[in-house]
Write a structure and sequence with these properties.
154 residues; mainly alpha; 0% strand
């Protein structure tokens, strides 16, 4: 679909087409429609993401809570999202599904929202970059802890 088609959509059609771009959050498409015309895909994306960024933390957490657990009850019902199916989650064994369910529950208990991962977009280089970013965060916390402690212990 080209951007001219997107820009010519009436409100209802726009929400029908784009209402689940952000999982189970058609309200975002409602708000973005009024920002037409869009110059290109990147401009449309910018408006979706700016809406999310402008929400208070409670609204952002609400968006996360709209996401299903990774390979959770939707796997059991056979209604996985395209992203989850594309990541191979339909081929998990029983033990793997049970372990993933346990991890999902622990994550939700700790943070109050489900673990969200763009599984279909999972490339080794991107995962490496993300993992190294987390390693750097850990290193930063440790360095800060060391520099705030007794200098004789450094």
């Amino acid at each position: 679909m080209d951007i001219e088609k997107v820009n010519s959509m009436d409100f209802g059609e726009f929400v029908d087409v784009f209402g689940n771009v952000i999982e189970r959050c058609p309200l975002i498409a409602d708000a973005v429609w009024s920002q037409r015309p869009f110059s290109d895909l990147e401009d449309l994306e910018k408006h979706f993401f700016a809406f999310i960024d402008a929400l208070p933390q409670s609204g952002q957490e609400g968006i996360l809570r709209c996401h299903p657990d990774l390979a959770g009850s939707e796997l059991q019902r056979g209604t996985l999202t395209r992203e989850q199916s594309g990541a191979g989650l339909t081929s998990l064994g029983a033990d793997e599904r049970l372990r993933l369910a346990e991890l999902n529950a622990q994550y939700r208990a700790r943070f109050g929202f489900p673990f969200v991962l763009a599984a279909r977009f999972s490339y080794r280089t991107a995962e490496l970059r993300t993992a190294l970013g987390e390693v750097k965060k850990i290193g930063s916390l440790r360095l800060a802890g060391l520099l705030r402690s007794d200098p004789a212990k450094l």
